[in-house]
Each structure stands twice: as structure tokens, then as C-alpha cells.
What we know:
Elements: E1 2-5, E2 13-16, H1 22-33
Amino acid sequence: MDVFIDENNGAHWLLHExxxxxxxxxxxxxxxxxxxxLTDLAPLLSKEPGLTWFSADExx
Length: 60
């Protein structure tokens, strides 16, 4: 995972992860929603985190 912190706003972070497949990511998210829940994280956030998926374009 790469963590990028906005130089103009230290409260704005971007986390970059590369998954083997969408199924692997979905399995991880299911784990985090259940027995692997991060209960200490939510109080630290100013709003609900966003999630965006990207695909690599190997032709570029």
C-alpha cells in the first residue's frame, strides 16, 4: 500500500492498493465488515471514506 498525504491539507490522505483481482478485494472487504472490523478508525475520520477502482492501461 502507498499512502499519499496532501501537502496543502494534512487531513486529506489517498491510500493506493493493488489487488490480484476484484474477488480478492471483495473478500478482504467482507472480512473487514465482519470479524476484522476496524472499530477504532471511524472516530478518527471527518467523513465516510470514498472508494474508487482503477484498471491499468497497458497500452500507454
